[in-house]
Amino acid sequence: MSDLATALSEASAKMSKAVEVAKEDFGAIRTGRAHPSMFAKIAVDYYGSYTPLSQLATFQVPEARMAIITPFDKSAMAVIEKAIRESDLGVNPASDGVVIRVNFPQLTEERRKEYIKVARAKAEDSKISIRNIRRSAKEALEKLEKDGDVGKDDVARAEKELDKATADHVSRIDDLLKHKETELLEV
């Protein structure tokens, strides 16, 4: 594969990763319904090291606004409960010694608007990341041209492909944001 193709494929892969990160970030933003991905970013202080909650328990969502968390290690119940309480989910978990129940209150309109602002900020961060990847790739292409490795026409073509990939990835983030906003505004 040529240096141009390598630079373009690396940039595209990094941009796709930025879209995946945005998708994960959006998944962690609470909507009116409970879902296991809401707990994805929660880390629990488990025997002195921070461990993702998903590695310490299983999740069930029996109702739209309730999640049941079953820890693998019952002795971790208190630290898991504490981590959930201190997270930005805004919930108060209750334990019965076997499972932890998390009831999600109905979102107020004010809280929905706050979550939309958070989603827009995360989307903008992802777009900035994609534009930074584009800039780095463009600099690499210009360096290839300056070093005489490739011709000016090849670099111009590669830059057009890079711009198209950038626009496609930014568009995917916009679509994810639109979907999340719709989800948040659903009552």
Describe the protein in words.
The protein folds into 2 domains: 3-27 and 108-185, Orthogonal Bundle (Topoisomerase I, Chain A, domain 4), CATH 1.10.132; 33-103, 2-Layer Sandwich (Gyrase A, domain 2), CATH 3.30.1360.40. It is 58% helix and 14% strand. The strands form 2 sheets. The protein has a 4-stranded antiparallel beta sheet with strand order 3-4-6-5, covered by helices on one side. It has a two-stranded antiparallel ribbon with strand order 1-2. The longest helix has 38 residues, at 109-146. The chain has 187 residues and is α+β, with helices and mostly antiparallel strands. Helix 3 (109-146) runs antiparallel to helix 4 (152-185). The chain is built from 4 helices and 6 strands. It is elongated, with a radius of gyration of 22 Å. It starts with a helix and ends with a helix. The chain has helices spanning 3-28, 77-86, 109-146, 152-185, and strands at residues 43-46, 49-52, 57-63, 66-71, 94-95, 100-103.
Give the SSE map.
Blueprint: H1 3-28, E1 43-46, E2 49-52, E3 57-63, E4 66-71, H2 77-86, E5 94-95, E6 100-103, H3 109-146, H4 152-185
Antiparallel strand pairs: 1-2, 3-4, 4-6, 5-6
Helix pairs in contact: 1-3, 1-4, 3-4
Total DSSP E strands: 6
CATH topology annotation of the largest domain: Topoisomerase I, Chain A, domain 4
Low-confidence stretches: none
> How many distinct domains?
2
Q: Given the structure, what is the number of helices?
A: 4
Order of helices and strands: HEEEEHEEHH
Mean pLDDT: 89
Q: Which CATH architecture of the largest domain is right?
A: Orthogonal Bundle
Helix content: 55-70%
Could you tell me the strand content as a percent range?
Answer: 5-15%
Cα Rg: 22 Å
Q: What distance separates the N and C termini? A: 51 Å
Structural class: alpha+beta
